[in-house]
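User: What would this chain look like folded?
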Amino acid sequence: MIVANHQIAYRNVASKLYNFLPEEIDLAIADFIQILEKYNYTPTGTMFFSIISDPTAEVMTAQIF
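Assistant: Here's the prediction, encoded as structure tokens.
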């Protein structure tokens, strides 16, 4: 659901912006997990992503949290 003027705020959240082909989202998630492990971070909640680009674009821009 899309809600106008709605914001989500979290504390102690890591994120990274990625550009990838939609079929390569698994590679982006694997890269993000590898970065977290490198810094000894342990995910305690559900990982999610936000699509920033047009969802029909050939190259997708998304932020993984």
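The mean pLDDT is 91. If you want, I can go into more detail on any region.
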